[in-house]
Amino acid sequence: MNSLTAFFDWLLTASFRASALVLVVLAIQFVFRRQLAAGARYALWLPVLIVLLTPVLPQSRWSIENVFKASEKPVLMPLIVQVTPTTDFAPIIENTAPSDTPLDWPKIGLAAWMGIATAILLIAGFSFFRTLRRYQRSRLPMSEEWNAQIAQLAREIGLPRAPKVWISSAVTSPAVTGVLRPVLLLPAGFEQDFTPGEARLILQHELTHLKRHDLPLNALLCVLMALHWFNPLLWIAFYKARLDREAACDAQVLENAPPQRRVEYGHALLKAQTAFAPLQLSLGFVGLFQRGAALRSRIQSIASHHQPHPAMKLITLASIGLLTFLGITRAEEPSNVIGKAEFRPGDSIRITNVQRGDGFLTVTADYELASEPEARISLHITQTKGDGRSKTAATQSKTIQKGKGTVTLHHPTMGEGMPHVSFYPTKGGSVFGGVYFGTASEAAASQNMKWKMTESSTANPIEAKLKAIVFPVVQFRDATIAEAMEFLRVKSRDLDATSTNPAQKGVTILVRGAEENKARITLDLREVPLGQAIRYVAELAGLEIRVEPYAILVAPKSTAKPLPASNEAASPIILPQVELRDATLDEATTFIRLKSREVDPTGKGVNILIKPGGNAAKISLSLRQMPVNEALRYIAELTSHKLSVEENAYILTPVK
């Protein structure tokens, strides 16, 4: 849907730009109606076609898009949002209480456009193939003489090969059709209704369409008509372009022709008008079917032929180049720089497109929400002047669900300040992640802000995981505390969407005294966060939990105190994985010592000394991306040892 929405937005923009060019082209044709040759009139429509087909537009201050940007006035939607004054760069707290969700008019417009465009294409395609099928069924035999004449004429015109020829009683007017396999359509009695000279001119006209590749271009115009069904100016342009195409083809057929041949050609057109009826639906067909004023204009142009002034060719080429430049370039936008950004683990916002206008701001961004099941993503401006208050529209904010997606947010009353796109709780509250952007000065100013989120980004990432990881089902029947915690530990890795790195998924759970605890756990929970599941299991076992920097500690209530902090900074040696099952202290420290040597770039690893007198406790651990000193600290606590650090070694001393 996001790609389709982006395509629809581009189509609307292209349609409006092309409309402006249509008015300019019609004005040029009117002013220079006596000076412009038929081919030049037709060529003037080329910029309109290029604009309708160009997906990526370079920026220019001379773009015709500036005409629309200067007058664009977004619709305001009455929703007032309080923004805290930020003259001292205080923390951002914006009232984001949910409001009534308005109708999503862009989606309604997209659905209507798709439905009508699809219907037009289907109806036109069905009608074309049905008509073609009718012609094929009523085909009449053609003489070898006519076949030879048409083949000879095709060679004279310069076609690589002659088209197929169908003579049918159902065909009402000479025409050509078919993009890949061209077919020349002739009505029954064509040979009898025209003199050989007139018939030759009409055939030359139709074959010239093939030489000019008018059939593929006609098919493209039919598709564009369906896609831009909502734009009457483009329908007028398509109609005028088809008239100019026929006049240009006439001019090519009569190039350097004597007056007598022009008279004969005009008589042939008039005779075709009286002898044949126009096709009921001409989409997909290119031919002579014109009547009334359009035909009179063609005959008048043929009769009053004159050579255009040489300067008109230069004027035409310059006009085409200028109109193309004005049409395919877009208005210059101020360069946007990313400023201060803070997010919870797994959350992100990436600005992909920014459009600024006269008092408004529109932003498109890709987001990933992992820390909450639902949130509101909003576009706001932290004001640096005034009272810090601004009127806000509902188009500035959208409710999103956990996962990835793309949003387009619109700020209709942009003032001076620093714009940002941020996450907010759906039930109201403070920002919990966002990114500033804007001009270089705005981005630089945001870097100096003392920004504290409701839950600071420096908080323990384990706490964010306890909320973000949600278990669809948790069922235990007479499970031990060790079995229950092991299930939660393993399953948390499968359900963790806060990180794409497998080594950082899930949480580590340490249980003190699991062997002595005889409690049996029976639980049946649905859609429960990991933190609540651990708390329920701990309560049933008479234990308490504590969130540590790298793990969850589960211990008896009398000993559930924080693990003593290591007396050194986190070790630069990171162990990617530590898996111990019923290991002795000697086995555990040997594993740590050897593993540290493998991952230490210097190959030295760490030295570990165990003082005698300790107990024979068994150690079960599962750690990921753990500093060596933290891994040893957990081992020490599980075996009732004290960890200390000397100059060249870690010392494990039994606690008496």
Describe the structure.
41% of the residues lie in helices and 23% in strands. The model is unreliable at 70-99, 453-458 and 560-569 (pLDDT under 50). The chain is elongated. The protein contains 19 helices and 23 strands. The protein is of the alpha+beta class and 656 residues long. Strands 7, 8, 9, 11, 12 and 13 form a six-stranded antiparallel beta sheet that branches. The protein has a five-stranded mixed beta sheet with strand order 2-3-5-4-6. Helix 3 (46-53) packs parallel to helix 13 (310-328), helix 6 (144-157) packs across helix 8 (196-211) and helix 16 (481-495) packs antiparallel against helix 17.
Can you describe this structure in just a few lines?
Helix content is 41%, strand content 23%. The chain is built from 19 helices and 23 strands. The longest helix has 33 residues.
Question: Can you tag this structure with a few keywords?
Answer:
single chain; 6-stranded antiparallel beta sheet; 41% helix; 656 residues; alpha+beta; 23 strands; 5-stranded mixed beta sheet
Low-confidence stretches: 70-99, 453-458, 560-569
| Mean pLDDT metric | 79
User: Which bin fits the share of residues in helices?
Assistant: 40-55%
Total DSSP E strands: 23
Task: Write down the Rg.
Answer: 39 Å
Structure classification: alpha+beta
Please summarize the sheet with the most strands: 6 strands, antiparallel
Shape: elongated
Sheet-strand content, in percent, reads 15-25%
Tell me the span between the first and last alpha carbons.
66 Å
Number of helices: 19
